[in-house]
Fold each of these.
Amino acid sequence: MSLINIIDFPVLGDGRGALVALEANHHIPFEIKRVYYIYGTAQGLARGFHAHKELKQVAICLKGSCRFVMDDGKGKQEVILASPDKGLLIDAMQWHEMYDFSENCVLMVLASDIYDEDDYIRDYQNFLQEIKKC
Ligand code: TYD
């Protein structure tokens, strides 16, 4: 099973440029309850290093590029996000790390729920224990 689930968004382009429209439960496979974005990431830094118990997310690199490592406790796979018409599905119980942010990177994330620290698993050993129960 691939850990990298990329959603290709339709681009409504014409002579004026490109337009991408994202609808909940259609292009995005859940009800969107939160949007956040990451930018100005210091060079050489990595972020993420957690999994979510329930939350589903789609990450879209609107500008620039960054790399994701996706990990289900059995294996890891990497992907580069570098296009605003592609979304990476981050499912529940997928450990993820992001790094190699380009200087101009703007990474937008659509999430299925509001922020809840109790939904985070931030300890990798704890993640491996929890994944065995799934
Ligand atoms: P964190 O999830 O650690 O960021 P990353 O996964 O990119 O490393 O979040 C950084 C901080 O921002 C942390 O204190 C929690 C807070 N935060 C919110 O308050 N709301 C949010 O929607 C998110 C994603 C983070």
Note: The chain has one domain: 6-133.
Amino acid sequence: MTTFHGHMNGQGLRVALVCSRFNDLIVGRLEAGARDALVRHGVDETQIDTVWVPGALEIPPAAKALAATGRYDAIVALGAVMRGATYHFEVVCNQSAAGLTRLALETDVVVTNGILTVDTMDQALERAGSKAGNKGADVALAAIETINAIRAATA
Ligand code: INI
């Protein structure tokens, strides 16, 4: 039996961060956290592109187009969906996650999901660089680990 792990060296990787402008106070922090984590793990800053789209629902189609260019090893989705008074919250949460999951299965590019789904701005701030860490950094590192695990197991 062989066990494979993904190492955390991001040297040579090309990454797209697909970010939504809705709640950009939060998403800007997720983007900065993701970028910082990638660079600290060896990804060349010039190999990280950021693409801004209007809202979380626009992230999967933009990610799909970017994956199709063949320019990236990973797409990191970053957004913040905050509960409002209506059912729209559920639609945006569920459909953005479903779109990313589907894309991840349909493309060879690794796709990770850093779209926060929270009830309050406090919960979002906690996950965007304060007491619960930075989910942008977490999902950027998940991308590096997944790429390297797949490469190790399929080499
Ligand atoms: N988009 C978000 O990224 N976050 C939200 O909290 C949000 N809410 O609550 O409505 C949101 N809606 C917009 C949606 O993602 C699309 O941009 C819009 O429906 C146009 O397709």
Note: The pocket of INI is lined by residues 20, 22-23, 54-58, 79-82, 84, 88-89, 92 (CB under 6 Å).
Amino acid sequence: MSNNDKTKVLFAAFECAPFLKTGGLGDVAGALPAALKSDDTDCRVILPLLSQIPAEYKEKMQYVENYYVDLGWRSQYCGLFTLRKGGVMYYFLDNEYYFKRAGIYGEFDDGERVAFFSKAVLETVRHICGTFAPDIIHANDWHTALIPVFLREQYNGDPLYDHIKTVFTIHNLKFQGQYNPMMTGEVLGLAGTPAEGQMCHDDAVNFLQGAVIYADAVTTVSPTYADEICGQGCGEGLEGLFQSRRYKLSGIINGIDRKSYDPETDKAIAVNYNADTLDKKEENKLALQREMGLFEDPDCPVFAMVGRLTKQKGANLLTDLLPEFMHRYMQVVVLGTGESEYEQALGSFAYTSGGKISARIAFDEGLARRIYAGADVFMMPSEFEPCGLAQMIAMRYGTLPLVRETGGLKDTVTGYWDAGEHANGFSFKNFDTIGLRNCTDLALDLWFNHKDTWRKLQRNAVSMDYSWDASAEEYRNLYRSLL
Ligand code: ADP
């Protein structure tokens, strides 16, 4: 298929690894577009030229041209730069007033900054359409939520734009872009349009709400989370909106970088291994026990947690149960930072446990990898989890996930309780200590009394394909369904 016949996807995000990343959105924007490129799809990425992007990338960018972008009554400069990296074409939009700031987010005028970016993305289509006329614009999170709104309200009837379909993906529902409704006319130039009425929620204009209403398809990062946000108390105030747009809402699970997270080549771990040499995990376990000050014992199962120490991640359930766990034949390793009550509780349990519990309050990529390799069980008893990457990484390393059945955890982990030897981990339903305790006891029973079944579960876990390729195919199917 020639490049002209391919479906052209313009992927818009405010951050993108390796240029700039503050969270999961940056990871997805950095990995998904390359995976989306295929025989029938071309994907290019469009980003703001934020001043925090390192000079090594800026120096390689090519200036193309500049033009002016109308935003409400303002007309603002926009410079266009390009950079090709890893087979992907990146467009960077420059405006020093909006993007040369001390912080990436948290500026007094974030609403206006993201509105400018969204409008500039659409205006840029006019300037790149000779080589790349998008069929789909894929917007991500509240920073780009105005793209579907502006497209329908301000470009309607323009033949260059009428055929363009929009996909809006929610990575983080906590941030929605809520501002004084005055902004709708003053800054967005949407006064008197249907959008003005539709985007207001609790006396505020809500950018994300606008995207959910105006986009042709809305996705979030796992099918179960897509269901959950329609339910009472799980949609950050937008449950009703999601229910009414359920017909166009779906969930597509994120992938992990299988090259980087590969126990066969991972340089951070003590001994490399693969699906056929899982018994080498034992050497990694002994090394981990040594590193973390636990007593060295290959027979004692190591339960691990790596992540933000917050209630969302179930840190409260773990700290409530540690006094009991101290009396079981098991060890607990925790790596993370977060709320001080959990950091302090973990520190003092570790101090008094006599080598059964160990906690490192830090962000340490290398240690995280050694924990994935050396632990036997990886705990994620989350209250909610839009997708979750850590459970997929743990499986890649043959470490059985023990999770609460929520969001992406439910979609990726099949629990032993329900699936027996077809399981790839352990899971429990209710977000309480009873659930976590029972599930832990089930895992302990399997570890001590059914070693062969344990190995089967490990094999099931390492053979799961949580690559970006699988996610990309689902996104491509979604795009096709819209054209
Ligand atoms: P989140 O909701 O925090 O994005 P995920 O499970 O999706 O949770 O991703 C968390 C990622 O960050 C995983 O790759 C995990 O290994 C890593 N991580 C989290 N906390 C730490 C830490 N303290 N040290 C090293 N890596 C960490």
Note: The CA atoms of residues 173 and 236 lie 7 Å apart.
Amino acid sequence: MRIVLLGAPGAGKGTQSQRLVERLGIPQISTGDLLRSAVARGTELGRQAREAMEGGRLVDDSLVLGMIRERLGDRDARRGFILDGFPRNLAQAHALERLLEQLRQPLDAVVQLEVDYRELVRRISGRRTCADCGRVFNLLTSPPSASALCPKTGAPHRLVQRPDDNEATVAERLRVYDEKTRPLVDFYRARSLLRVIDAQADVDEVTRRLFQALGIRTARRARPAKAARRSPRAAARKVVARKGAARRKAASRRAAPRRKPARAASRTSRAKPRARVPQRPRRKR
Ligand code: AP5
């Protein structure tokens, strides 16, 4: 599947992308993660992107498009991908459309995750990331458990806050989202690709809604027996009745007096039961 996840900063695009990766086995392509990695490695791209990111503005389209073109050409993206944080404006959306036409890989769906402003700010203020493995937590909704260890270091996770998760930058990111990214909702609706889900619920529930919107079946449960599938109540009654009968049989076996083993009866005697001989009344002495 080729999917775009749209939504404001903090809507849960990264979190839900991870669930899709686990379920579908296709890569998550997050422009935010690619840019942060370039900044951390001190590459030329990172150097050019850094200032815009720290200010909560969008990085130049030409830089982002170059990065996306390269990433979509990678082998693992041929089976499908989840775009997280891209496209971010109409120019990027048009460029993506052209690129996917060239690659003959049209999008299957675009999902908009809707969350209200207060909840977005709450989620972003609680977000912490492990500096070593990159796993995302939330101090308010999903803190790491006391026993959780980082798979990279084997020690407890080292939690850090993203530099652009401060109050001033978050306000600017949300403003930029409304101005530049929200218009993509109409862009994709006009192409009949848009699905909107209410993403203001716990993570598992949002995943359920997302999978439903994409027509992805959730993990299979064990199939009940045939009779239970037809009528679960009737099947349950049948089990109770069967158990009751077994109990009664066992009780009557316990209560019955022990009989001597009967002598083998001849066929004729079985066929014709012997008539009972009336006993003579005892004579009184
Ligand atoms: P980017 O990294 O894309 O950030 P963003 O779009 O602002 O999105 P976030 O990563 O903040 O939020 P998210 O929706 O992924 O939420 P998450 O799952 O983490 O971009 C950063 C910067 O890079 C941009 O500002 C820009 O400068 C630049 N950039 C990136 N792409 C660009 C592009 N295409 N063009 C130009 N510039 C670009 O969840 C947030 C928190 O909430 C977490 O703590 C999580 O645990 C928690 N949470 C998630 N779901 C739930 C839930 N259902 N209930 C409770 N808590 C939840």
Note: The pocket of BIS(adenosine)-5'-pentaphosphate is lined by residues 7, 9-15, 31-32, 35, 52-53, 56-59, 64, 85-86, 88, 92, 123-124, 126-127, 136-138, 141-142, 164, 173, 202-203, 206 (CB under 6 Å).
